[in-house]
Amino acid sequence: MFSLNTKKIIFVGGKGGVGKTTISSAIALQQAELGRQVLLISTDPAHSLADAFDHPIGDSKVRVAAGVDALEIDPDREVDAHIERVMRTMKRFSKPDMFPEIERQMRLTQQSPGAQEAALLERIARIIDEEPEHYDVIIFDTAPTGHTLRLLSLPEAMAAWTQGLLKQSQKAKQLEGVLEHLSPKAGKDITNPMADPTQHETATMDDRTAEITETLLRRQRLFHRIRHILTDPKQTGLVFVLTPEKLPILETTRAVAALKSEHLPIAGLVVNRNLPDLIDSDFFAQRRQQESIYREEIENTFADLPRAYLPLFPTDLHGLAALQKVCAELPSD
After folding, report:
1. According to the model, what pLDDT value does residue 233 have?
2. What is the DSSP string of 32-58?
3. For 272, which of 12, 214, 220, 233 is 20 to 30 Å away at the CA?
4. What pLDDT sits at residue 242?
5. CA–CA dist 297, 61 (Å, integer)
6. Helix, strand or coil for residue 106?
7. Where are the beta strands (DSSP E) in the chain?
8. What class of enzyme is it (predicted)?
9. What is the pLDDT of residue 64?
10. How confident is the model over 104-121, as pLDDT tens digits?
11. How many other C-beta atoms can be found within 10 angstroms of the C-beta atom of residue 45?
């Protein structure tokens, strides 16, 4: 139904509190049952994968079920590592008397808004670029409207940032040809990673300028490749989780519209926690009646997307046995 069984990258997102982590975990178990090797990753700073599996999970991969490895990205640790990498790179290209100022600026950057997100996106990009060698599918328990849209905008942001840096260089005119390749607005096909700048753009530059340019181009190529993967419906699928309630429907409507405008492939919706048909009290009968109105709204609003309805379970869901019950309710392709 969702055609997830051939995807290499699956994002599971939705409003907070609708059961994203439970559904992400159940999808991971389902894919593993099909014989696929799965890497399940939480990018939410308030991780709950470990709670879902009743198993310790940290920033390194750990086996949580047959065929399923999991990790929870530590955003603070990622910021520290990201700042350290950037600082090390800047020092290579700067005069020694500038080092104290570089360190001061980078320490300030560490506390700035967006630093954590930038570091997180860098980690996500590298995982998508490197881990497919080891896994059949990578599942992200995250919010696609935030992370993924920003991830997709990075090639353009990188081009603007790179252009600003290189214009400060005495070699600006020499590098202008490279900038044309870096800028998507220059008419280049940024959806094709093979159309990236040529390998010979730096051939006539001095060693220092060539090294700076190659460093920038490597990052640019990385984000080109990631964008290509994320917009390819054969490789990537986004699953939205919502409950049959007004606010999750509104947020999902906005998210679906935004992701469609970015040409991101939406695999379908999981409508979670539906009340059972048999209701034995007036209270739940009213809740069931209200739910039926929202279910009809979901049917009308998302008529073009596959939809799966999962029941409200009578108890909390945590631990492998409970997740396998949810897995059994998921649609199979």
Report:
1. 95
2. HHTT--EEEEE--SS--HHHHHTS---
3. 233
4. 95
5. 40
6. helix
7. 9-14, 38-42, 62-65, 68-72, 137-141, 236-242, 266-274, 307-311
8. translocase
9. 96
10. 777 777 666 667 777 788
11. 12
Residue showing tokens 């990075």: 154
Interhelix angle 115-130/75-92, rounded to 10 degrees, is 90
pLDDT attached to residue 284: 84
The per-residue pLDDT for 181 is 55
What is the model's pLDDT at position 168? 59
The pLDDT, as a whole number, for residue 160 is 62
> pTM for the full model?
0.80
Cα–Cα distance for residue pair 246/56, rounded to 1 Å: 35
**CB–CB of 11/151 below 8 Å?**
no
> Which pLDDT score, from 0 to 100, does residue 169 have?
54
Q: 3-state DSSP call for residue 212?
A: helix
Determine how β-strand 38-42 pairs with β-strand 62-65.
unpaired
Residues 6 or more apart whose CB falls under 8 angstroms from that of 295 comprise 244, 271, 274, 309
**C-alpha distances in angstroms, 50 versus 4, 71, 77, 85, 278?**
24, 9, 18, 29, 33
Q: How far is it, in rounded angstroms, from Cα 292 to Cα 269?
A: 17
Q: Which two tokens stand for residue 19?
A: 């059961």
For residue 308, list its beta bridge partners.
270
pLDDT beneath 50, residues of the chain = 170, 186-198
CA distance 224 to 189: 10
Helix and strand numbers, DSSP H then E, in the chain: 11, 8
The C-alpha atoms of residue 188 and residue 156 are separated, in whole angstroms, by 12
